Amino acid sequence: MTTITGTLGPAAAISAVGLSKAYGGRTVLDGIDLRIPEGTVFALLGPNGAGKTTVVEILSTLVPADAGVVRVAGHDVVREAGRVRSVIGLTGQFAAVDHLLTAEENLLLMADLQHLGRREGRRRAADLLRRFDLAEFAGKPAVTLSGGMRRKLDLAMTLVGGPRVIFLDEPTTGLDPRSRRTMWELIEGLVQDQGVTVLLTTQYLEEADRLAGRIALLDGGRIVAEGTAAELKRRIPGGHLRLHFCGPAELAAAAALFDYAAADTEALTLSIPGDNSIVTVKAVLDALDNAAVRAESLTVHTPDLDDVFLTLTARGDVR
Predict the structure, then answer these.
(1) CATH number of the domain at 238-302, please?
(2) pLDDT digits (tens, 9 = 90+) for 235-254
(3) Which tens digit of pLDDT belongs to each residue from 112-131?
(4) Could you tell me if 90 and 199 are in contact, meaning their C-beta atoms sit under 8 angstroms apart?
(5) Which one of 203, 273, 286, 302 is least enclosed by Cβ atoms within 10 Å?
(6) CB–CB of 126/146 below 8 Å?
């Protein structure tokens, strides 16, 4: 790996400077930088083939980078790969449970792989079964569990070793909405109660919006935008105020007050483009008041992460 000089900064659970990777002459990652503080959830979004899984593979020491400085929990992923592996957990896109083993046996197997003593392994297995509401299924083969329960068991297996950093590569793929929300609550609990750091890749934009403190959009091997969900949404045009009126006369009078407003005569609504700030809302209400035009209701509409994703990435297919 080529080392690139750079300051990675303190209190970062995950740091990368100039991270690059190519396969067969095709650049997958083109010098990306990441800094993820401890005890946070960071979401990585991007189209198919954007390089999200490659980032996870490099950070978790599964594949080497071609260039860059990469540290996880303060350890260099090349020179201290063993130490990195000792403090991380990885849950992939598909549950890695052994279907022939029971739920408890899967956890005990992970305890053995972590070189835990027999007593400690059983203690951790019992604790995780309880925390993940799987205790009543402890003695049942994993093959008999529902998809949602297998994903919970998979996450529980990741936690046997008490990792400080967890990589979740599309952890809710294939789950129904109820099971997906259960997984979200479990992930939130890990961060809030235990201070775990989570790097999440997901195909569900709602998931990133719900869980992540910061989000990065990866496209063409580069990070094209990074920030909180609110910051990213503010970068995208399309915000507007929508006014509803009781009749066509009021609608027409209001439409005459605002340039670029779009009137819907059937719905009796008027859409006014703007930044949706308090100043803008007050200006609209003042204009209506001064003209003695009464609106029945006002709603504020802002771009969502779907709009951000489609606008800032070159393709519209999410992975």
Answers:
(1) 3.30.70
(2) 777 778 999 999 999 999 99
(3) 988 889 999 999 999 999 98
(4) no
(5) 286
(6) no
